[in-house]
Structures are given as structure tokens and as C-alpha cells.
Design a protein that fits this description.
Layout (H helix, E strand, L loop, with lengths): L7 E9 L6 H18 L2 E7 L2 E9 H9 L1
Antiparallel strand pairs: 1-3, 2-3
Length: about 70
Amino acid sequence: VPDRLVPLLRCVYWSRAIAELDAAALDDIVATSRARNASARVSSMLLHSGRSFFQVLEGSVASVEATFAR
């Protein structure tokens, strides 16, 4: 157990793409998100259906706010 616990923030949101995305575009989103989230030490979950996305971000307050602002 660390001496100092860092408060976590969980951000849950829904978004919609302007147009349908093909498999290559979705793969690109996933690859880019994985790399950026790992660098920011943010955990995430992304669900996709049609043009709709549901995402959960979790990490330190500063990391989640910076990730969400991108």
C-alpha cells in the first residue's frame, strides 16, 4: 500500500461520430487511444455501436481531465 494515495477520477461519457467509421478508422482510434492513455497513466474502456461511442476514463484527476480535453 503506498504511503500516499492518489484520488481517482472516473469520467463516463457518450459521443456520436459525424459519419460511419470503417474498421481501419476504428483500429486507428483504438491504437492511438491505447498509446496516449498508457502515457497518461489513464485506464479506459470504449464501446462502439454504429456511430455511437460510450467511454470510461479513470486515473488521477489531472490525467483524466487532460485526456478528456484532447
